[in-house]
Structures are given as C-alpha cells and as structure tokens.
Amino acid sequence: MSFYQQYWLSIYISDKKPGESTYVLQKQADVVRRLQSAKMAKLTALLICLLPLLAWAQNDITWYDYYTAGGRTSGLVAASKDGFLLNGKPFHIISGAVHYFRIHPTQWRDRLKKLRATGANTVETYMPWNLHEPRRGEYDFSEGQNDMSYFLNVTAFVEMAQEEDLFVILRPGPFICSEWDFGGLPSWLLRDPEMKVRSSYPGFLEVADAYLTEVFRRVVDLQFQRGDGPIIAIQVENEYGAFGVGDEPRDTQYLIHLRDKMIELGAREMFFTSDTPTKNADLGAVPGELQTANFQKDADPEFDALDLLQPDKPYMVAEFWSGWFDHWGKGYHGGSSVEEFSYTLERIFTRNSSVNFYMFIGGTSFGFMNGANTLPVFPFYAPDVSSYDYDAPLSEAGDYTDKYYAAKDLIARFNRIPNIYMPAMPAESVKTVYPAIQATEHLTLDDLLLQLPSNLVIQSDNLLAMEDLPINNGNGQSYGYILYRNTASLTGGAHTIQTVGHVRDLAVFLLDQQRLTPDWKNDIQLNDFGFWALENRTFDFNADKGDTNYVVDLLVENMARNNFGPPSYFAQKRGLPEGPVLLDDEEVVGWTIFPLEFTSAWVRGLTNWNAAPAPPTTVICPTLTKSTLTIADDPTDTYITTTGWGDGNRGVVFVNGFNVGRYSGIGPTKTLYIPAPLLSRGDNTILVWSLFDPVTTIAFTDQPDLGPSTQP
C-alpha cells in the first residue's frame, strides 16, 4: 500500500478498542491487496475515498450516540462533587434557555441549531400555565383557538430538540417567573377571594395538580428513561426561596407535594430546584433533591454556599443570567458586558460546574404577556417591555452576538469529550427595511366600544376588577384594557375626580369622549392622577357645557402583573380593584364596564372603519389606525420603529391581527420585532392602537433599537 492508503487506514482504526487495531489494520490491508491484485483500480480508489468518511463517522459522533450507546440503563444522576452521570457516563451539562412560547414555531429549529452549534448538549424551557390553561379547565397545547395557540405545541418542541441532538431540561411550573405576566400563573386564580398562590392552600393545589396532569399527559413519554426521549431533568417550582421574607419558613410541604405529584404522573428523571444560594440558602429546596444556583456574576460565593448546603453534590448553574431585562422608563437597555459574561462563564467551568444560559435567546413577550416587578421603593411597580432580547448570546431575532462567540470558544476550551460532532453555524435571517406606509383608516375608542359583543358589556353598581368580571365562562378578563363609564349630572365649572386606592396600572380620563389627562413623558408624572405609584390621586377639570349630563370614562391599561417576590406581591387584580371613584367627594355608582381584550379574532373582525388616517384634530381620544404593507416577494424579518410616534405616546401594534407587543415613547425600547412568518406576500394589515396620539406613519428598519446600552 502507498503511504496515503496506510495513513487513512490508521486514522480509521485509531479509536478502536485495545486489541482491535492490529486486527482491523490487517483486515483493511487484506481488502486493499485483494482489490489491487484483481486489478480493480477504480474500486480501490473508491474505497480509499470512502475511508476518510468512515473515519469521520467513527470520530465525530452525536451526543445521543455517545450517551445511548449500548442502550439506556439510567438517567441523569447528581453523582458526586466530580459531576453528573448520564446513562452511567460523565456528563457536563451545557444548556441554553429557549422558550418555545417566545419564538415563532417556524423559527424553533433555527434557534435550536444555533444553540447546538456552540457545542451545547441541552436546551431548557419553562412552560407558562396561563397560556396552557387560559380558562379554568380549558387546556391549550396548540389545539385551541387562542391568540398564542400556534406557539404552544411543547411536545413538538421537545421532539425537535432531540432531532437537533439536544437533551431537554423541563421547567413546568406551576410558577415560572420569567418576566412573564403573573409568573405564568393564570389570572382566573384571583377570582377566589381566599386564594393563596404557590402554597398548600387546597384551592391552589387542586388546579395546579390538574394542570400538571395535562402537562405530563403530553411529555411523560418524552423522558430519557421512558420512551427514549430527551428530557433528562425536571425543575420543582421556581426560585421558591424568594417567595418569602427573610428567614421565615417557606411552605416546603407544597414543594414536596409538587414533586410527589409529578412522580405519580410518571416523572422518572432527576428533580432539582433553583435559587440564589447566598440570598436564600435552602429555603426553596426539596429534601433529597439537587439544589442549583442562579446568578449573573460573582460565581465563587454561590458555589461556596452550595458546598455548605450539599457538600457531596455537583455544581449546576440553573440560571447563568447572560444579560438582563428592561422596564418601561428605565432609560437604557440592561445587560452585561461580554467581558463580565466571559469571566463568569470561565469561573463556572473552572469550578467544574454545569451551566444553563438564561437566556440563550430571549425572544419576545408577544401580546400582553410581559411581566412586571413590584418594588419596595418608589415608584413601587415596574412593567417590562415586550422585547425579551435580554442581551443574550442570540439576539431577539436570532442573530449572533459577541457573547455567542465567547460562549462557543469557552465551551470548546473546556469540552471534556473529544470527537463530538460540531455542526456549522446557520446563517442569520435576512432583515428588510420596507418602505414607510401611511394610515388610511381609523376607529376611535367609541367606535371600538360599539363593536364589543353585548355579553361583554357589564352593568354594575360598583367598580369591578378585570378578574372579577362575569365574562369568559366565569374566568374574568385576563389582559388588555378596561373602560369604566358613568353618566354624571354636573354643573358647569370646576370639578374634581378621585380614584380611591391605586390604579392598576395606567388610567386615562375622558369627559364626553375627549381625553383630558396628559400623556406619559417622565417619571415625575408617576406622582399624579392616572398612574400606579400613589393612592387616592385627584384630577381637576372643567365641565364646559354648563349644567347637563356628561359621560365620564376611565380607561385603564393592565400593564402586567408582578412575576417575582414574596406572597404579598401576588395580590394582582387589575383595573380599579381597590376602591370607588369620587366625583366632588361623592362616590360614583352605576357603571357600564367594557373589557377591551383586543383578542386577535376580535381585531381581525373589526368593521365600519372611518375613511381617514385619524380623527379630526378637535377629537382627542384613544385611536386605532389601519395601514397596509404590500410585499411583492417572500417576506423577511423586519422591525417597526416607534421613533416619531410621540415621546409620551403608548399602545399596541397588531400585524395581520396578531399582537406583536406594546410600545411607549418613554422607552428604552424604540422598535418592535416582526418575525417573517407573521407576514405574507401581498397585503399585510398593520394596526396601531394609541392611548394618546394617533399613529399615521409606520416606518421599518433592519436594526433593533433597544435603547442606550449603558445607564446615562
């Protein structure tokens, strides 16, 4: 044989078991000699060409090939301080959070491929209860007719992860935090006046158990040890150590109940909890189950704390916060530098810890699903923006960032298993700057109220919170806006209106369909009437028509329910839930209440549009404007820029009836991401709902504007 032939033959056999190499070499050499002696030169050349491919197949194997060779005999085990075992083999978890409900399903595979291309072996996802059970007893795992139904096939997502050579960490809740409305809890829970969420309260356990039953009906056979699936670990609840004050005991029996319920439903994989050990120690732990750490930086103190809590267990960072999220009015886009990110990740690996990037890609909190934080100091509440870019390794649109390359390099440097197949990095999506378009039609607030079904218009002597409305089969209103209307007999001249208690969360006052309260341009206004920060705010106005009846409207936006903190932060009814409205110090009774949920089905069915871009300038009221974007070719990703819509304006954008998220001139976010699958060839309808100034021009860009990258 030539040297070239011998070289490739030796590579092919180099990874054979001891004792096999010489035997295989001899056999391969015999084959070549026989071919040569038979003067089959062409077949010899073909064989020689195939040998490198055989070498590739032998050396570059998938994660599944490696960890399932010889069959599956055990799952993921927190074996010792040395690390985890999967199917009896050492396993270093390299995972990234990818939320199926924040990414259009046609883009799932692209994001999973990009995760796998870093060298990662696992994907992690939460499951939002409030999407999967939007009304009590009505479950939606993509079978429903709800706005987000198409996003909810978690079974397909888990199966796709396995197809892309990724194991799966599942975090089913029932609480998920995740900067998601009410931390994933359904708002209908709040209809029970005795409800104690995230506790052993029987009314909560009953519905949480029913939800988990539906979850495991769909995922039980996707576990590693049952059904040959990819799920290797399951989280119990989420950051439960933070659900309390100081060192007061947590409801550990509640956590044990959840763990035992999942076992009853067929869970076989490793359970774990996640918290920040230096803050919450083992307050949120389940006895006997792995405790993990959540942090953005300062890794070593967290590992040291874990050493004290579980000295014989491996390290796992369940949430390595790769960046951070943004609140409206924050003034800048949160996150962390690539240097800090890289240093912390290197410390994680140096300490022999497994890791889950939270987030690997943040995606988008479409619709009204963004979360919020209750704060102990002014302004006491901070709602999140719709973009969940998170300053993660992949951008909101799935583009590569410097953190992606840093993570990829460090994963390769600390890789413990040679010859694992490394797929190529998929291309980024094309972004198009579509031509600006002009609004052609509009509907005023009153036009919209006239198109509400009569069964949604509620008469009540007293104010009702969103959640307490007798609509949606007894489940109340979950999201959107609520309008409280009263016809008041007023004398001409000065008057005062007062909201007793707090507004939840932003109220616009109208008199005879004319908006009187100003738009939101700065934090100083948060002290004023119509904002959430302070209770019992008043607003002075004039009744200019003289002594007659006036229509008094309070339009309230539910900006989001809190998703984190102690039990006292979870009293989260929206609208005007705390007290009456006073006119000139007298309680107003006799309300007509209009829930404006802005569901996709309702938005798509709107009619009787006014044939003008906006109302006359003499009409000052919330408005929905309609524009048409015509696309000649296959659509691509794009962004709508909200710059120029008014520094104090605020509202929501719908693309072909789908709610892509909120906008606000207060910032920091100044764009809305529009995934290509939401668009189509031909005409696309763009609707913009504005609380303050009608939006008549829509411009597009190919770059996101999430705000300044550092604090001013």
Question: Overview of this structure, please?
Answer:
The chain is α+β, with helices and mostly antiparallel strands. The strands form 7 sheets. An 8-stranded parallel β-barrel has the order 4-5-6-7-8-9-10-11, surrounded by 4 helices. Helix 12 packs parallel to helix 13. The longest helix has 19 residues, at 41-59.
Radius of gyration: 29 Å
Coarse shape: globular
Q: Number of helical runs? A: 15
Proportion of strand residues: 15-25%
Residue runs with pLDDT of under 50 for 5 or more positions: 1-58
Topology:
Blueprint: H1 3-13, H2 21-37, H3 41-59, H4 63-68, E1 76-80, E2 83-86, E3 89-91, E4 94-98, H5 108-116, E5 122-126, H6 129-132, H7 154-163, E6 167-171, H8 202-219, E7 231-235, H9 252-264, E8 270-275, H10 277-280, E9 290-295, H11 299-309, E10 316-321, H12 338-350, E11 354-361, E12 372-374, E13 381-383, H13 402-413, E14 437-438, E15 441-444, H14 445-449, E16 458-460, E17 481-490, E18 493-499, E19 506-511, E20 514-515, E21 537-543, E22 548-557, E23 581-583, E24 586-587, E25 591-596, H15 600-604, E26 623-631, E27 638-641, E28 650-655, E29 658-664, E30 671-674, E31 682-690, E32 697-701
Parallel strand pairs: 4-5, 4-11, 5-6, 6-7, 7-8, 8-9, 9-10, 10-11
Antiparallel strand pairs: 1-2, 2-3, 12-13, 14-32, 15-26, 16-25, 17-22, 17-25, 18-21, 18-23, 19-20, 19-22, 23-24, 26-31, 27-30, 27-32, 28-29, 28-31
